[in-house]
């Protein structure tokens, strides 16, 4: 019987509500397909910070390094500054474990109302660079508390970093409809984005069978609204991928269902699976958060662990429950609870 | 009789097609309201570059500095790299003339089909910081042509630059529904965006009558799609404003109608008025581009020049022509030409 050891970090806010549903559904699928999962629960996050002054223990990364995967809810709570909470937990995991691909599917399901008048079939992937780019520690502040105060933030792109994520995106497109869109802004941003385009052209040379297109991020957001059906795989820098992966799910009805996989494709380090949404303090504690983003992230985790059938069973269960129109959470126009929707999907598995 | 001297730069691509329509309509309004306009046509752009090796003459800025306003079409053509064409013409004008506010209205007109199922009334302004931020010359490349190749781009925010554009946005909100939304990304971008939030809070202190909200740029794009009716004024950094001001008009049907005003509010330097769309090489030369972005920019120019009635007459004419459903260009579902639509609006004025 195949087995895997999973580090679970519920984190903050609705993370604590959706993770148990994710675990429940993944466990259900694991039982059906005879997979032996060990769940190692870690109480890291802003509560941990309140008690111990840090988001995770000093040796936190070591403690999860030996796991096969990390199953994360959401990080962030008003008691800790965002920069601190995210850059001492989420970002170190993404960076240190070289999870340089953030893979985010965008799909319109039957039963979920899109805000668009004529959405058509929507089914594409965003491949977000997840280790460098606009997210960096480099920069600082000068002349604090004076009228001359200023801050600088460095965006850093490397050939190594661009090429590896682009290669992943081309390979994914090759398994799909062989169309890859690159998000750029080389008409306005001088040093980094023309380089991004250069690397995109260079890597494309190895994939002559993939049709490519490039759009500036501003107009690309317009295309997401006007022709979301036309995308297959979209590759983007860290920030642009972050933006597009909220916009894409919004166009399909709710970001509550959007999952993500922070992948270390070489499997040298554990990969991490988390919903696209955050800790949502405004709805936390009410048992109304949509658990599908977390559950679908669980399916991506099983797929990454080699349990393709179990992963497929979860996605099929999500599809069936959504199509039934029953047990939908408020963000999808229903009035079911987080636990009711989670249970319905577990039952459907 | 009030008078003004305007520098006209058609620029490239569809700029050459929409600017004449803009001039035609603005002239029509000027005649009705007794305003004496002098149009100083400058053949700057990529053709100028082909002939003379530069986008504009060396003393270009001096040549337009004495004008009351600049009426620009679009810049950029495949024969010149984007970085060169934009950073030797558009950007120097925005920067040197301290056009630090890029004001971009977003409005859903009767007669234009929004891609949204239930759009509701949409009528808000984006106030984009236009002089600093993510658009900067600072940065560079190391280890070219090696596997270690990397690039760095500096985003620069100053207290001076943030405060003045935020103040403008608060003042605009005060003339409207007293609601201001700030676009940020302080949970992911360490040095600049937390500073943006700090300055927003500080400036907000002087405007206790304005209700404020702050959203991370990723989720804000989702809100643009899901509740565009709820915005009044949105203030954003250079890049975030760029993105939001394509997305907003896309949600209202077409970015072809979106105008912009690059304002130097102190009027020390001329302000510049240009559509949000670019030179659109794919449809250039076909007489099918939507001239409304340019025409509406002309109305914003008249308003800035103090001719409020003439500006209002143009917007009313645009409204009437759109509502009639006649003379619409292909981007709005019609089959009229650029010139036919421009003429219809001029006649309606
Ligand atoms: C052409 C480009 C540099 C420009 C910008 O990004 O400012 C355009 O997109 C705009 O919105 O005016
Ligand atoms: C919480 C935040 C730092 C994070 C990001 O920007 O990466 C989130 O928005 C995401 O998309 O995973």
From TrEMBL, chains A, B:
<keyword id="KW-0464">Manganese</keyword>
<dbReference type="InterPro" id="IPR050501">
    <property type="entry name" value="ICDH/IPMDH"/>
</dbReference>
<dbReference type="Pfam" id="PF00180">
    <property type="entry name" value="Iso_dh"/>
</dbReference>
<dbReference type="InterPro" id="IPR024084">
    <property type="entry name" value="IsoPropMal-DH-like_dom"/>
</dbReference>
<comment type="function">
    <text>Has multiple catalytic activities. Apart from catalyzing the oxidation of (+)-tartrate to oxaloglycolate, also converts meso-tartrate to D-glycerate and catalyzes the oxidative decarboxylation of D-malate to pyruvate.</text>
</comment>
<comment type="pathway">
    <text>Carbohydrate acid metabolism; tartrate degradation; 2-hydroxy-3-oxosuccinate from meso-tartrate: step 1/1.</text>
</comment>
<dbReference type="InterPro" id="IPR019818">
    <property type="entry name" value="IsoCit/isopropylmalate_DH_CS"/>
</dbReference>
<dbReference type="InterPro" id="IPR011829">
    <property type="entry name" value="TTC_DH"/>
</dbReference>
<keyword id="KW-0520">NAD</keyword>
<keyword id="KW-0560">Oxidoreductase</keyword>
<comment type="similarity">
    <text>Belongs to the isocitrate and isopropylmalate dehydrogenases family.</text>
</comment>
<dbReference type="GO" id="GO:0009027">
    <property type="term" value="F:tartrate dehydrogenase activity"/>
</dbReference>
<keyword id="KW-0479">Metal-binding</keyword>
<feature type="domain" description="Isopropylmalate dehydrogenase-like">
    <location>
        <begin position="5"/>
        <end position="345"/>
    </location>
</feature>
<protein>
    <recommendedName>
        <fullName>D-malate dehydrogenase [decarboxylating]</fullName>
        <ecNumber>1.1.1.83</ecNumber>
        <ecNumber>1.1.1.93</ecNumber>
        <ecNumber>4.1.1.73</ecNumber>
    </recommendedName>
</protein>
<comment type="pathway">
    <text>Carbohydrate acid metabolism; tartrate degradation; D-glycerate from L-tartrate: step 1/1.</text>
</comment>
């Amino acid at each position: 019987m195949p087995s895997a050891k999973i580090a679970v970090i519920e984190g903050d806010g609705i993370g604590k509500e959706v993770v148990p549903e994710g675990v429940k559904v993944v466990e259900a699928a694991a039982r059906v397909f005879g997979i032996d999962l060990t769940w190692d629960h870690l109480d890291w996050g802003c509560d941990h910070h309140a008690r111990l002054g840090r988001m995770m223990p000093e040796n936190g990364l070591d403690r999860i390094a030996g796991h096969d995967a990390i199953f994360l809810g959401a990080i962030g709570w008003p008691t800790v500054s965002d920069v601190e909470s995210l850059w001492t937990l989420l970002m170190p995991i993404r960076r240190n474990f070289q999870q340089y691909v953030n893979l985010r599917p965008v799909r319109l399901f039957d039963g979920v109302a899109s805000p668009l008048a004529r959405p058509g079939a929507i089914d594409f992937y965003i491949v977000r660079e997840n280790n460098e780019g606009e997210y960096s520690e480099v920069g600082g502040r000068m002349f604090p508390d004076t009228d001359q105060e200023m801050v600088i933030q460095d965006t850093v792109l490397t050939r190594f970093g661009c090429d590896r994520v682009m290669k992943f995106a081309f390979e994914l497109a090759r398994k799909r409809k062989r169309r890859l869109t690159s998000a750029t802004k080389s008409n306005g941003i001088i040093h980094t984005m023309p380089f991004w385009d250069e690397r995109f052209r260079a890597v494309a040379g190895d994939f002559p069978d993939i049709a490519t297109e490039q759009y500036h991020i501003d107009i690309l957001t317009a295309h997401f609204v006007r022709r979301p059906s036309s995308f297959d795989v979209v590759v983007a820098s860290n920030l642009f991928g972050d933006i597009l992966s909220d916009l894409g799910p919004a166009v399909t009805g709710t970001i509550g269902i959007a999952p993500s996989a922070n992948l270390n494709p070489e499997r040298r380090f554990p990969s991490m699976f988390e919903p696209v949404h955050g800790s949502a303090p405004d709805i936390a504690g009410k048992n109304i958060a949509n658990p599908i983003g977390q559950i679908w992230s669980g399916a991506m985790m099983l797929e990454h662990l080699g349990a393709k059938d179990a992963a497929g069973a979860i996605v099929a269960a999500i599809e069936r429950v959504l199509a039934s129109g029953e047990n939908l959470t408020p963000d999808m126009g229903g009035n079911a609870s987080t636990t009711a929707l989670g249970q319905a999907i577990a039952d459907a598995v």
